Amino acid sequence: MTPRHHPSQDLIASCAAGTLRPGAALVVRAHIARCPTCRAEAGFFESLGGALLETETPAPMSAGALDRALAAIDRPAPAPPAPARVRSGRPALPHGLDGVTMGKRRWIAPGVTVTPVTTRHNSRELVYLLRIGAGMVLPRHTHAGCEFTCVLEGSFSDSAGRYDPGDFIATDESIEHSPVVARDGPCVCLAATDSPLVMRDLVGRIFQPLAGI
Ligand SMILES: [Zn+2]
Question: Ligand 1 centroid vs 31 CA: distance in angstroms?
């Protein structure tokens, strides 16, 4: 299934330029690995960055450098290898997300686990895999800062719509929601945030210290 919810062009450009926070870049790359459209866009920005670097040197830009960058828009993006499953039962991260360490999976509520993810650059962001059982409803919450999420397995819905594997969601303090997981299977999401969630109900406030998110 091709994702229907995508990162902004600014996020893809920042990711391609290497200026995005490591955790946020991880989530954007998880989406790009499943989205041919955004993969082509990221390829274009990377080619363009290379062409611009050439213009910063005293030597003249090599013949065809800009043409190569522009051609990247039309070039079909190569498909990445399919995500591999890990024998421990942990959901596998898409290939290409190197430099990532998975922590110990923590049970935080019936049907809900959190697995901390450490990025290579040891960022102060909170990055984690969240696994929620089929049909479960997450406590109502909002976000004190920016949170980026990519669905890896399963699907969930909130008042804004339905999110399936590969879909990318950006949330901030303007969004208050209570996601509901589809009844046909658990949902696994990769999320990165620069500040903890703000729980709006009692159940959430009880379980938040256990989750560490
Ligand atoms: Zn996309």
Answer: 6
